[in-house]
Amino acid sequence: MAEPEPLTVRQIADRTGLTTGSATRLVDRLERGGYVARTPDRHDRRRVLVTPVPERLARVTALWDDLGRTWQTLLDDHSEDELRAITRHMRRAHDLSQTQIERLRTLPKQDQDRPGPHEGP
Fold this sequence. Notes:
By secondary structure, this protein is mostly helical. The protein has five helices and two strands, in the order H-H-E-E-H-H-H. Helix content is 62%, strand content 8%.
């Protein structure tokens, strides 16, 4: 919702790491909640653009600002060295997660349904 321009569902999927089906369901829910509106693309009638509803965007922004202040209070208790270690860990965890997501997406469907080595039967 922070994008200045309307996006297609495909663009939302690409930016969030969701499949297009999951991104469509996300947009469906956001639209039902009044957070976004679907509008036809004026330049390509085959495309539909997803646009944030400004009043709702302000509400979401206020919630994120409050959350940001809370996180800042938590982080203020750490030294610069500790913050560097936390940041390094979070970046590595993110990279590992992205690698695992990509690996799982390349597996044949039957392999995705099979429990992993640390999961139950």
